Amino acid sequence: MRRTEIPIRRASAIVAVLALAVLTASVIAVGGDSNALPVAAVGFSQIENPAGRGSLAPAVSVGPKGELVLSWIESPVPKMKLRYSVWQGRAWGAVQTVVQRSNFDPDAAAPSIVQPLSSGVLAAVWAEKKKEGDKDGNHLLAAVSSDRGKSWSTPARIHTDASISEHSFSSVVPDPNGGATIIWLDARDYSAEKRYRLMSAVISSTGKVSGETTIDADVCTCCPTSLAQTSKGLLAVYRGHNADQIRDTMAARKLGETWGKPNRVRAEDWKIDGCPVNGPTVNARDNQAAVVWFTAKDDKPQIENAFSADNGETFGDAHLLDSPKDGSRPVGHVTAALLPDGKQLVVWIRQVGGGAQLVAQEISKDGATSDLQIVAKGTTRALGYPHLELSGANAVLTWGGTSEEASVHTAMLATSR
Predict the structure, then answer these.
(1) What's the helix, strand, coil split of the chain in %, to 5?
(2) Which domains does the chain carry?
(3) DSSP alpha helices (H): ranges in 163-208?
(4) Does the pLDDT of residue 314 top 90, yes or no?
(5) I need a labelling partner for 367 at 20 to 30 A (CA). Which of 49, 102, 343, 384 fits?
(6) In this predicted model, what pLDDT tens digit does every residue of 45-83 receive, in sequence order?
C-alpha cells in the first residue's frame, strides 16, 4: 500500500518517525502489557467475540434497523478470510465468510467493512494489494449478499481507476434507497501531481457501483475518513491538505446528488510534512452532528470536539477533550458515537508513561465532560484503531487486531438513554 510524503507506508518505522514526530519518538515504542484485560469505563464491559487469535483489522458497523456487525480479517497467510458476525442481543452470532484471498490488505487503520443496508442486503468492502514492477498499491472491491451471507455477488471494483496506486481508507453509509454511499482516498494523481483525492461512489443493492465523483482534489494521504447521514444529506469529514502542508479537519456535504465545497471544521493550521494516520470521526442524528479529531500544531497534541445544529453546514466552538497533562499525551485514533441525549461519547488513545491507554469520555454541547475512564491498556500499536457504533441503548467498541496484538477485542456499554 503506497503512502505519500514517504514512499511506502509498510516501512512502518519510517512512517512512525515522520508522521508522528510531533508526538515524540516515545509513542513509537511504548511499553506495557498489550494483553491486559480492560477495566470498566463509562459502563463498558468486555464481551467475548468469535474472532480467533491472529485476527486483524476489526471494524464494527450498524445497519438502518440497528443491526450490529463485527468484521475482521482472519489469518494465517495465504488463506486469509474476510469474516463477520452479527450481534444477537446477548452474544455474537455464527461466524460467516465473505471472501478468501491471499492478497488482502489487513491494515488496522483502514479496515474492511461489512455493512447492513435498508434493503436487507449486506454490503462488504475490502482492499486487495496490487503490485506491478516496483509499484505497490491496492484496489477497493465490493460485493453484496441478499441471503444473509450465504452467497455473495461477484466482487466489483469501487473506482474506475485501474492503476497500481492506492485506493483505501473507505467509509460506507446506507442510502434510503437500499444501497450505500462510499468515500475513499484515491492516489490516481500521485505519480503526476503528488496529491490524493477524496472520492465518492454509490453501491446498489445488487452490487453495481456507479456515480464516481471527486469531493476534494487534494487531501491528506493516509488518514481515515468518516461519513454520516444527516436529515438533509450526507456529511463527510476527513483530513485535508494543501501546498503549504496544512492538514486540517475538513467537512463536505452532499445535498441531493451533488457534493458541496469542503470547508474547515476549525482553522487549526496544523502544518506537518508527513501523514499522521489520524483521521476525524463524524456522527449525526436528525439535524445534529458532532465531529471529533486529533491535532498537534506546535507539537501540542490535542483531542477536540465540535457540534453542529444544522446538519454540518456550520460548527460551533471546538471544545478540548485531551491535551498533555499529568505525564500523559493524546495519541489520537479517535472514534465516537452520538448519544440520544445529545452528548457525544468519544474514545481515543493516549500515551501514559511507558505505555498507552484506550480511554473514553462523554462531552456535551457546552463542552462539559464526564470523568475520563480507562477501557484498556497496552501499547499504541497494540491498541490499534478503535471503532465504536451505537445501536439503540447499546454502544459496541472494538480494538486490537494489529501486527503487534493479533487479537480482536470487543466491549459493550449499555447507555440506557
Answers:
(1) 5, 50, 45
(2) 20-414 (2.120.10.80)
(3) 190-193
(4) yes
(5) 384
(6) 999 999 988 999 999 999 999 999 999 999 876 789 999
